[in-house]
Write a structure and sequence with these properties.
The protein is of the alpha+beta class and 304 residues long. The protein is 30% helix and 28% strand. The protein is globular.
Protein backbone atom coordinates (compact mmCIF):
# COMPACT_ATOMS: atom_id res chain seq x y z
CA UNK A 1 0.00 0.00 0.00
CA UNK A 2 1.12 3.53 -0.83
CA UNK A 3 -0.60 6.26 1.16
CA UNK A 4 -1.37 8.77 -1.60
CA UNK A 5 -2.45 6.13 -4.11
CA UNK A 6 -4.87 4.78 -1.52
CA UNK A 7 -6.25 8.27 -0.82
CA UNK A 8 -6.78 8.80 -4.54
CA UNK A 9 -8.59 5.44 -4.74
CA UNK A 10 -10.89 6.55 -1.90
CA UNK A 11 -11.68 9.77 -3.76
CA UNK A 12 -12.88 7.77 -6.76
CA UNK A 13 -15.20 5.49 -4.82
CA UNK A 14 -18.24 7.64 -4.25
CA UNK A 15 -20.05 10.91 -4.65
CA UNK A 16 -21.23 13.28 -1.96
CA UNK A 17 -24.23 15.54 -1.74
CA UNK A 18 -22.65 18.93 -2.60
CA UNK A 19 -25.25 20.67 -0.47
CA UNK A 20 -23.67 18.95 2.55
CA UNK A 21 -20.09 18.11 1.52
CA UNK A 22 -18.50 21.12 -0.14
CA UNK A 23 -15.01 19.55 -0.06
CA UNK A 24 -14.43 15.83 0.48
CA UNK A 25 -11.26 13.71 0.64
CA UNK A 26 -8.10 15.11 -0.90
CA UNK A 27 -7.56 18.44 0.84
CA UNK A 28 -6.25 19.35 4.29
CA UNK A 29 -9.79 19.39 5.73
CA UNK A 30 -13.23 18.37 4.65
CA UNK A 31 -15.63 21.30 4.32
CA UNK A 32 -19.20 20.65 5.44
CA UNK A 33 -22.29 22.82 5.05
CA UNK A 34 -24.10 22.61 8.38
CA UNK A 35 -26.89 24.95 9.43
CA UNK A 36 -25.85 27.59 6.93
CA UNK A 37 -22.23 27.56 8.11
CA UNK A 38 -19.12 26.03 6.55
CA UNK A 39 -17.40 23.75 9.05
CA UNK A 40 -13.92 22.27 8.71
CA UNK A 41 -13.17 18.72 9.78
CA UNK A 42 -9.75 17.06 9.92
CA UNK A 43 -8.17 14.07 11.63
CA UNK A 44 -4.59 12.97 12.15
CA UNK A 45 -2.69 10.35 14.11
CA UNK A 46 0.80 9.76 15.45
CA UNK A 47 2.52 6.43 16.04
CA UNK A 48 5.33 5.61 18.42
CA UNK A 49 8.39 4.72 16.33
CA UNK A 50 7.14 6.66 13.31
CA UNK A 51 6.24 10.22 14.37
CA UNK A 52 7.91 10.25 17.79
CA UNK A 53 9.78 8.04 20.23
CA UNK A 54 7.92 7.44 23.48
CA UNK A 55 11.16 6.50 25.24
CA UNK A 56 13.06 9.53 23.97
CA UNK A 57 10.38 12.22 23.85
CA UNK A 58 7.84 11.17 26.48
CA UNK A 59 4.03 10.99 26.44
CA UNK A 60 3.31 14.71 26.94
CA UNK A 61 5.30 15.65 23.82
CA UNK A 62 3.47 12.90 21.93
CA UNK A 63 0.12 14.31 23.02
CA UNK A 64 1.06 17.82 21.97
CA UNK A 65 2.35 16.72 18.56
CA UNK A 66 -0.84 14.81 17.83
CA UNK A 67 -2.83 17.99 18.44
CA UNK A 68 -0.65 20.48 16.58
CA UNK A 69 -0.48 18.28 13.47
CA UNK A 70 -4.26 18.42 13.17
CA UNK A 71 -4.32 22.13 14.02
CA UNK A 72 -1.88 22.73 11.18
CA UNK A 73 -4.48 21.27 8.78
CA UNK A 74 -6.95 23.88 10.01
CA UNK A 75 -4.30 26.56 9.41
CA UNK A 76 -3.74 25.29 5.86
CA UNK A 77 -7.33 26.27 5.00
CA UNK A 78 -7.23 29.56 6.95
CA UNK A 79 -9.75 28.28 9.47
CA UNK A 80 -10.30 28.72 13.19
CA UNK A 81 -10.22 25.63 15.44
CA UNK A 82 -13.26 25.05 17.63
CA UNK A 83 -12.88 21.73 19.46
CA UNK A 84 -11.00 18.44 19.38
CA UNK A 85 -11.58 14.81 20.30
CA UNK A 86 -8.78 12.31 20.79
CA UNK A 87 -8.41 8.54 20.86
CA UNK A 88 -5.49 6.68 22.39
CA UNK A 89 -4.39 3.07 21.94
CA UNK A 90 -2.00 2.49 24.82
CA UNK A 91 0.74 -0.15 24.87
CA UNK A 92 0.55 -2.93 27.41
CA UNK A 93 1.66 -1.76 30.84
CA UNK A 94 1.06 1.91 30.11
CA UNK A 95 0.71 3.78 33.40
CA UNK A 96 -2.01 6.21 34.43
CA UNK A 97 0.70 8.86 34.90
CA UNK A 98 1.70 8.42 31.24
CA UNK A 99 -1.95 8.64 30.15
CA UNK A 100 -2.35 11.83 32.18
CA UNK A 101 0.77 13.26 30.52
CA UNK A 102 -0.77 12.67 27.08
CA UNK A 103 -3.89 14.52 28.22
CA UNK A 104 -1.77 17.43 29.46
CA UNK A 105 -0.02 17.65 26.09
CA UNK A 106 -3.40 17.79 24.37
CA UNK A 107 -4.87 20.17 26.94
CA UNK A 108 -2.03 22.70 26.90
CA UNK A 109 -2.12 22.82 23.11
CA UNK A 110 -5.90 23.13 23.09
CA UNK A 111 -5.81 25.98 25.59
CA UNK A 112 -3.22 27.83 23.50
CA UNK A 113 -5.44 27.80 20.42
CA UNK A 114 -8.86 28.00 22.09
CA UNK A 115 -9.59 24.45 20.95
CA UNK A 116 -10.74 22.43 23.98
CA UNK A 117 -10.55 18.67 24.20
CA UNK A 118 -14.24 17.73 24.45
CA UNK A 119 -14.14 13.94 24.29
CA UNK A 120 -12.48 10.82 22.96
CA UNK A 121 -11.75 7.18 23.67
CA UNK A 122 -9.05 5.14 25.40
CA UNK A 123 -8.12 1.54 24.64
CA UNK A 124 -5.16 -0.67 25.52
CA UNK A 125 -3.37 -3.40 23.59
CA UNK A 126 -3.83 -6.87 25.03
CA UNK A 127 -1.45 -9.78 24.78
CA UNK A 128 -0.43 -8.79 21.26
CA UNK A 129 2.07 -5.94 21.69
CA UNK A 130 1.29 -2.69 19.96
CA UNK A 131 2.76 0.82 20.02
CA UNK A 132 1.24 3.96 21.47
CA UNK A 133 -1.16 5.48 18.94
CA UNK A 134 -2.89 8.84 19.31
CA UNK A 135 -5.53 10.14 16.91
CA UNK A 136 -6.94 13.67 17.04
CA UNK A 137 -9.97 15.00 15.18
CA UNK A 138 -10.57 18.75 15.08
CA UNK A 139 -13.68 20.69 14.14
CA UNK A 140 -13.06 24.19 12.82
CA UNK A 141 -15.00 27.11 11.41
CA UNK A 142 -14.41 29.58 8.58
CA UNK A 143 -15.36 32.64 10.62
CA UNK A 144 -15.84 34.95 7.66
CA UNK A 145 -12.99 33.69 5.46
CA UNK A 146 -13.59 31.24 2.63
CA UNK A 147 -11.54 28.03 3.00
CA UNK A 148 -8.36 28.16 0.95
CA UNK A 149 -8.04 24.93 -1.03
CA UNK A 150 -5.10 23.23 -2.73
CA UNK A 151 -6.81 23.47 -6.09
CA UNK A 152 -6.82 27.20 -6.79
CA UNK A 153 -3.28 27.93 -8.04
CA UNK A 154 -3.25 29.92 -11.28
CA UNK A 155 -0.67 30.30 -14.04
CA UNK A 156 1.37 33.40 -13.24
CA UNK A 157 1.01 33.05 -9.47
CA UNK A 158 4.05 33.30 -7.21
CA UNK A 159 4.89 30.42 -4.86
CA UNK A 160 5.76 31.46 -1.30
CA UNK A 161 6.53 29.78 2.02
CA UNK A 162 6.64 30.89 5.62
CA UNK A 163 9.65 30.24 7.83
CA UNK A 164 12.55 27.93 7.01
CA UNK A 165 12.55 24.32 5.87
CA UNK A 166 14.53 21.16 6.57
CA UNK A 167 16.15 19.79 9.70
CA UNK A 168 12.94 19.16 11.63
CA UNK A 169 14.22 15.73 12.62
CA UNK A 170 17.70 16.95 13.59
CA UNK A 171 16.31 18.48 16.80
CA UNK A 172 12.98 18.45 18.62
CA UNK A 173 11.52 20.97 16.16
CA UNK A 174 9.12 18.37 14.72
CA UNK A 175 7.62 18.17 18.21
CA UNK A 176 7.70 21.83 19.21
CA UNK A 177 6.47 23.70 16.13
CA UNK A 178 3.49 26.03 16.36
CA UNK A 179 0.76 25.82 13.67
CA UNK A 180 0.49 29.00 11.60
CA UNK A 181 -3.18 29.63 12.32
CA UNK A 182 -2.96 33.41 12.85
CA UNK A 183 -0.60 33.87 9.89
CA UNK A 184 -2.88 31.88 7.59
CA UNK A 185 -5.86 33.99 8.61
CA UNK A 186 -3.92 37.18 7.90
CA UNK A 187 -2.85 35.92 4.49
CA UNK A 188 -6.33 34.87 3.44
CA UNK A 189 -7.98 38.02 4.78
CA UNK A 190 -5.57 40.59 3.31
CA UNK A 191 -4.27 38.93 0.13
CA UNK A 192 -5.70 37.00 -2.82
CA UNK A 193 -4.22 33.65 -1.79
CA UNK A 194 -5.24 31.17 -4.46
CA UNK A 195 -4.02 27.89 -2.93
CA UNK A 196 -2.46 26.83 0.35
CA UNK A 197 -1.17 23.72 2.12
CA UNK A 198 0.92 23.04 5.21
CA UNK A 199 4.30 21.41 4.64
CA UNK A 200 4.02 18.07 6.41
CA UNK A 201 5.29 15.64 3.77
CA UNK A 202 8.08 17.88 2.44
CA UNK A 203 8.20 20.89 0.12
CA UNK A 204 8.38 18.77 -3.05
CA UNK A 205 5.63 16.40 -1.98
CA UNK A 206 3.23 19.06 -0.81
CA UNK A 207 3.83 21.38 -3.77
CA UNK A 208 3.13 18.29 -5.87
CA UNK A 209 -0.30 18.04 -4.22
CA UNK A 210 -1.01 21.67 -5.13
CA UNK A 211 0.02 21.43 -8.80
CA UNK A 212 -1.89 18.17 -9.24
CA UNK A 213 -5.05 19.55 -7.63
CA UNK A 214 -4.78 22.81 -9.62
CA UNK A 215 -3.81 21.21 -12.98
CA UNK A 216 -0.77 23.47 -13.35
CA UNK A 217 3.03 23.19 -13.18
CA UNK A 218 5.59 24.80 -10.90
CA UNK A 219 9.14 26.10 -11.14
CA UNK A 220 11.35 26.49 -8.05
CA UNK A 221 14.70 28.26 -7.74
CA UNK A 222 17.06 26.51 -5.32
CA UNK A 223 18.78 29.79 -4.42
CA UNK A 224 15.59 31.16 -2.90
CA UNK A 225 14.50 28.14 -0.81
CA UNK A 226 14.93 29.09 2.88
CA UNK A 227 16.86 26.28 4.59
CA UNK A 228 16.72 25.97 8.36
CA UNK A 229 19.96 26.11 10.33
CA UNK A 230 19.09 22.70 11.82
CA UNK A 231 19.65 21.15 8.37
CA UNK A 232 23.28 22.31 8.27
CA UNK A 233 24.50 18.96 9.54
CA UNK A 234 22.93 17.08 6.66
CA UNK A 235 25.06 15.98 3.72
CA UNK A 236 22.70 17.91 1.44
CA UNK A 237 20.65 20.53 3.34
CA UNK A 238 18.62 21.30 0.20
CA UNK A 239 17.51 17.67 0.03
CA UNK A 240 16.31 17.95 3.63
CA UNK A 241 14.33 21.11 2.81
CA UNK A 242 12.75 19.52 -0.25
CA UNK A 243 11.93 16.06 1.02
CA UNK A 244 12.15 15.58 4.81
CA UNK A 245 8.84 17.13 5.82
CA UNK A 246 7.49 17.81 9.31
CA UNK A 247 8.18 21.55 8.96
CA UNK A 248 4.49 22.54 9.18
CA UNK A 249 5.12 25.87 7.51
CA UNK A 250 2.63 27.31 5.02
CA UNK A 251 3.13 26.88 1.28
CA UNK A 252 0.85 29.14 -0.75
CA UNK A 253 0.31 30.81 -4.11
CA UNK A 254 -0.93 34.29 -4.99
CA UNK A 255 -0.66 36.84 -7.82
CA UNK A 256 2.84 38.21 -8.43
CA UNK A 257 1.92 41.81 -7.63
CA UNK A 258 0.53 40.81 -4.27
CA UNK A 259 3.55 38.61 -3.60
CA UNK A 260 5.80 41.62 -4.16
CA UNK A 261 3.84 43.62 -1.59
CA UNK A 262 3.82 40.70 0.84
CA UNK A 263 7.58 40.16 0.61
CA UNK A 264 8.30 43.86 0.99
CA UNK A 265 6.03 44.45 4.00
CA UNK A 266 6.39 41.08 5.80
CA UNK A 267 3.13 41.41 7.78
CA UNK A 268 3.26 37.96 9.40
CA UNK A 269 4.91 36.59 12.51
CA UNK A 270 6.88 34.25 10.24
CA UNK A 271 9.14 35.52 7.48
CA UNK A 272 7.79 34.98 3.96
CA UNK A 273 9.99 33.91 1.04
CA UNK A 274 9.11 33.69 -2.62
CA UNK A 275 10.59 30.47 -3.99
CA UNK A 276 9.16 30.14 -7.50
CA UNK A 277 6.16 30.46 -9.74
CA UNK A 278 3.19 28.64 -11.23
CA UNK A 279 3.40 27.96 -14.99
CA UNK A 280 1.32 26.14 -17.58
CA UNK A 281 1.73 22.40 -17.96
CA UNK A 282 2.20 19.68 -15.38
CA UNK A 283 4.86 18.57 -12.92
CA UNK A 284 7.61 20.56 -11.23
CA UNK A 285 10.97 21.94 -12.35
CA UNK A 286 13.94 22.84 -10.16
CA UNK A 287 16.37 25.55 -11.28
CA UNK A 288 19.79 24.62 -9.91
CA UNK A 289 23.07 26.30 -10.91
CA UNK A 290 21.49 27.67 -14.07
CA UNK A 291 20.19 24.27 -15.14
CA UNK A 292 16.65 22.93 -15.16
CA UNK A 293 15.88 19.52 -13.72
CA UNK A 294 12.70 17.62 -13.03
CA UNK A 295 11.60 17.73 -9.41
CA UNK A 296 9.86 14.57 -8.32
CA UNK A 297 6.89 15.07 -5.97
CA UNK A 298 8.32 12.79 -3.33
CA UNK A 299 8.49 13.28 0.40
CA UNK A 300 7.29 11.45 3.46
CA UNK A 301 4.71 8.82 2.56
CA UNK A 302 3.45 5.85 4.53
CA UNK A 303 4.10 2.57 2.74
CA UNK A 304 3.54 -1.06 3.69
Amino acid sequence: MREFEFIEWIRRQGEFDPEVVAVGPGDDCAVLNVGGEKLLLTTDQVLDGVHFSLVEHGPEAAGRKSAVRALSDIAAMAGVPVAMVATVAAPKGFSQADAEAIYLGLRVCGDEFACPLVGGDLAAWGESPGPLQISVTILGKCDGIEPVLRSGAQVGDAICVTGKLGGAWATRRHLEFSPRIADARTLARRFAVSAMIDISDGLAGDLGHVVDASSVAAELDTITIPIHDDAAGRKDPLEAALFDGEDYELLFTLPETEADELIENQPLEAKITRIGGIVAGSGMTLLRDGKREKLEPRGWEHET
